[in-house]
Amino acid sequence: MTIQKTQYSILIVDDDDDNLQVAAKIISNAGLRALIASDGESALEIIDTLIPDAILLDVMMPGMSGIELCQKIKTRPDCSMVPVIFLSAVGEDSEIEKGLLLGGSDYITKPFRERVLLARLRLHIEKGLYLKEIAEKNQELVSKNYQLVELQNQLLTANDALEKQINKNLEIFAAMNDKIRNPLAVALAMIDITEDTNSQKIIEQLNRIDKAVDDLDKGFMDSDKIRSFLKKHYNID
């Protein structure tokens, strides 16, 4: 039967049926949902159907021990933040230590007291929910940071293309300017050696053209973007 999550669910794993029933009653009376399993394989089947909010796990069980089950649970990405609280008898300290090193969150000695059991469960459920929220927020920040990096790369690419286009336009303008000025200079030099009236008129006309080219040059250089580009790349004010 498929288990539907309607409230906080606690998975209890113990091979002792009496312990299962006592723990399940305490949890149910507290308004939590009790899921029970008498061995490790049954517990894994339940987890495949529903990820519990916390797990109460007996340390010593036949077949798959509680320590082995804890290790299997903690290797699953979807269970990495689920708190595992060991239920242990007196004298199982070395096994408890192994379990805690493998990712267990806490332990309670049997026979356990109701108030202590519920207090530990409440503490670790709240902690687990808090850690889950932090992980989700962190993932959201990682995603937004990735988007910002992509946007920055796009802006850098666009800026590089703009600078290349400005540089190309400058080269075109410089070539055009040379083509205009060189013939004017030659013409002025040739005509300047003559003194007839027609030559003087031609010189005046060429001077007006030369002044127009100067005005065009100055107008081009008044562009804020061009001035900024020249200042940055060529140190020209």
TrEMBL record:
One Pfam family cited in the UniProt record for this chain: Response_reg
Residue numbers bearing the 4-aspartylphosphate modification: D58
PROSITE patterns named among the record's database cross-references: RESPONSE_REGULATORY
Record key words, sorted: Coiled coil, Phosphoprotein
Keyword Coiled coil appears in the UniProt entry: yes
Superkingdom of the organism of origin: Archaea
A molecular function (GO) term: phosphorelay sensor kinase activity
Domain Response regulatory: 9-125
Annotated coiled-coil segments of the chain: 134-168
Record SMART domains: REC
Cross-referenced InterPro entries: CheY-like_superfamily, Sig_transdc_resp-reg_receiver
SUPFAM superfamilies: CheY-like
Record protein name field: Response regulatory domain-containing protein
Organism of this sequence: Methanospirillum stamsii
